[in-house]
Amino acid sequence: MSYQRFLSLVEALRQTPGFPVMDAVEERMLNAMAVAWHAGKRITVMEAMHMFPSISPSTVHRRLKTLRLKGLIELDPDLVDSRIKYVQATSQTEDYFSRMGRCMLEAQR
User: Fold this and answer.
1) Residues 6+ apart with CB under 8 A from 26
2) How far are the Cα atoms of 2, 13, 36, 74, 96 from residue 42, in angstroms, in the given order?
3) Quick check: 29 and 67 in contact, CB under 8 A?
4) Please, is 73 exposed, middle or buried when counting C-beta atoms within 10 Å of its C-beta (0-12, 13-18, 19+)?
5) Which pTM was predicted?
6) Residue 10, domain extent
7) CA-to-CA distance for 100 and 69, rounded, in angstroms?
8) For residue range 61-106, what is the model confidence (pLDDT) as tens digits?
9) CATH of residue 23
Protein backbone atom coordinates (compact mmCIF):
# COMPACT_ATOMS: atom_id res chain seq x y z
CA MET A 1 0.00 0.00 0.00
CA SER A 2 2.89 2.42 0.63
CA TYR A 3 3.92 2.37 -3.01
CA GLN A 4 0.39 3.10 -4.23
CA ARG A 5 0.18 5.97 -1.73
CA PHE A 6 3.53 7.26 -3.00
CA LEU A 7 2.24 7.17 -6.59
CA SER A 8 -0.89 9.09 -5.56
CA LEU A 9 1.18 11.72 -3.76
CA VAL A 10 3.50 12.11 -6.73
CA GLU A 11 0.56 12.45 -9.10
CA ALA A 12 -0.90 15.18 -6.89
CA LEU A 13 2.50 16.88 -6.76
CA ARG A 14 2.73 16.84 -10.56
CA GLN A 15 -0.50 18.84 -10.70
CA THR A 16 0.93 21.70 -8.61
CA PRO A 17 1.92 24.91 -10.39
CA GLY A 18 5.61 25.19 -11.11
CA PHE A 19 6.35 21.49 -10.78
CA PRO A 20 8.59 20.46 -13.70
CA VAL A 21 6.84 18.60 -16.50
CA MET A 22 8.99 15.81 -17.90
CA ASP A 23 8.34 12.93 -20.23
CA ALA A 24 9.32 9.40 -19.21
CA VAL A 25 12.71 9.55 -20.94
CA GLU A 26 13.66 12.84 -19.29
CA GLU A 27 12.59 11.57 -15.88
CA ARG A 28 14.53 8.32 -16.35
CA MET A 29 17.63 10.24 -17.39
CA LEU A 30 17.39 12.68 -14.49
CA ASN A 31 16.97 9.83 -12.01
CA ALA A 32 19.98 7.94 -13.39
CA MET A 33 22.14 11.06 -13.36
CA ALA A 34 21.03 11.79 -9.79
CA VAL A 35 22.36 8.40 -8.71
CA ALA A 36 25.70 9.21 -10.33
CA TRP A 37 25.78 12.72 -8.81
CA HIS A 38 24.97 11.30 -5.39
CA ALA A 39 27.97 8.96 -5.76
CA GLY A 40 30.15 12.02 -6.47
CA LYS A 41 30.55 11.34 -10.20
CA ARG A 42 30.77 14.15 -12.70
CA ILE A 43 29.05 13.29 -15.97
CA THR A 44 30.17 14.68 -19.30
CA VAL A 45 27.66 15.16 -22.09
CA MET A 46 29.38 12.36 -24.01
CA GLU A 47 29.12 10.01 -21.01
CA ALA A 48 25.45 10.90 -20.60
CA MET A 49 24.83 10.11 -24.25
CA HIS A 50 26.10 6.56 -23.64
CA MET A 51 24.59 5.96 -20.16
CA PHE A 52 21.34 4.66 -21.60
CA PRO A 53 21.85 1.72 -23.98
CA SER A 54 18.14 1.50 -24.80
CA ILE A 55 17.98 5.18 -25.84
CA SER A 56 19.81 6.43 -28.90
CA PRO A 57 22.60 8.93 -28.21
CA SER A 58 20.86 11.52 -30.39
CA THR A 59 17.67 11.18 -28.32
CA VAL A 60 19.66 11.53 -25.12
CA HIS A 61 21.30 14.66 -26.52
CA ARG A 62 17.92 16.15 -27.45
CA ARG A 63 16.55 15.36 -23.97
CA LEU A 64 19.60 16.96 -22.34
CA LYS A 65 18.72 20.11 -24.28
CA THR A 66 15.11 20.01 -23.08
CA LEU A 67 16.16 19.35 -19.47
CA ARG A 68 18.47 22.35 -19.75
CA LEU A 69 15.69 24.54 -21.16
CA LYS A 70 13.47 23.45 -18.25
CA GLY A 71 16.17 24.49 -15.78
CA LEU A 72 16.75 20.96 -14.49
CA ILE A 73 20.37 20.69 -15.62
CA GLU A 74 23.17 23.04 -16.55
CA LEU A 75 26.25 22.42 -18.63
CA ASP A 76 29.52 23.51 -17.09
CA PRO A 77 32.64 23.66 -19.28
CA ASP A 78 35.78 21.83 -18.21
CA LEU A 79 38.44 24.20 -16.88
CA VAL A 80 41.15 22.72 -19.13
CA ASP A 81 39.29 21.63 -22.28
CA SER A 82 36.35 23.88 -23.15
CA ARG A 83 35.03 21.24 -25.57
CA ILE A 84 34.11 19.08 -22.57
CA LYS A 85 30.87 19.98 -20.81
CA TYR A 86 29.70 18.49 -17.52
CA VAL A 87 26.03 17.87 -16.83
CA GLN A 88 25.23 19.38 -13.42
CA ALA A 89 22.13 19.50 -11.26
CA THR A 90 20.53 22.87 -10.58
CA SER A 91 18.74 24.19 -7.52
CA GLN A 92 15.50 23.32 -9.33
CA THR A 93 16.73 19.72 -9.62
CA GLU A 94 17.51 19.63 -5.90
CA ASP A 95 14.02 20.99 -5.17
CA TYR A 96 12.46 18.35 -7.44
CA PHE A 97 14.21 15.49 -5.62
CA SER A 98 13.48 17.03 -2.23
CA ARG A 99 9.78 17.18 -3.03
CA MET A 100 9.81 13.60 -4.34
CA GLY A 101 11.61 12.51 -1.16
CA ARG A 102 8.92 14.15 0.99
CA CYS A 103 6.30 12.16 -0.94
CA MET A 104 8.21 8.98 -0.16
CA LEU A 105 8.37 9.81 3.55
CA GLU A 106 4.69 10.75 3.64
CA ALA A 107 3.74 7.49 1.92
CA GLN A 108 5.44 5.50 4.69
CA ARG A 109 3.27 7.04 7.42
Assistant:
1) 63, 66, 67, 70, 72
2) 33, 29, 7, 12, 20
3) yes
4) buried
5) 0.90
6) 2-107
7) 21
8) 999 999 999 999 999 999 999 999 999 999 999 999 999 999 999 9
9) 1.10.10.10
